[in-house]
Amino acid sequence: xxxxxxxxxxxxxxxxxxxxxxxxxxxxxxxxxxxxxxxxxxxxxxxxxxxxxxxxxxxxxxxxxxxxxxxxxxxxxxxxxxxxxxxxxxxxxxxxxxxxxxxxxxxxxxxxxxxxxxxxxxxxxxxxxxxxxxxxxxxxxxxxxxxxxxxxxxxxxxxxxxxxxxxxxxxxxxxxxxxxxxxxxxxxxxxxxxxxxxxxxxxxxxxxxxxxxxxxxxxxxx
Length: 222
Fold this sequence. Notes:
- By secondary structure, the protein is of the alpha+beta class.
- It is globular, with a radius of gyration of 20 Å.
- The protein has one domain (11-112, 138-221).
- Strands 5-4-3-6 form a 4-stranded antiparallel beta sheet. It has a two-stranded antiparallel ribbon with strand order 1-2.
- It is 50% helix and 18% strand.
């Protein structure tokens, strides 16, 4: 935490008019300090599901290893929504990873979800007060696999495509080939599901990309 005290806001949400720190900014700020300390963080997907409003949710398990092989682990969650329907999983994975880094290492960004943004304050003034409903209905949540089977097989394909993209991003942040091997093994269950779903168009390209990145890492280790 002495090495990195603050993560700069590098992105802007033009629709809601506010700046925010992205996952890439958090990684760029923390990665050098982790390398210097001989640490690396290994992510794996524990659960992934859709609710009946189309929001995607993930539960992630993170392990932080030191050079001896000892590690600590913790979980983080993320949610994503995309009106076009093609980036919900990606946003959920990205959000979980960003806040896992920021909260684990207690890094400041100036973002506080409990403090209303200026645009939200203006919106609150415009909106009349509403009566609090007497009943709050709970939302039934279904696993992604069940939703894909019952409603739309393309949803499952989309989830696997976005998972593959995220795996490649994580692989590129690995310092050594051994870290890449651990990353693959940590997500083996989901990787096997991708293989069973579409061997040729999803699994083989993911495997080939991993092999290419691993070859570069091995050359760097020599």
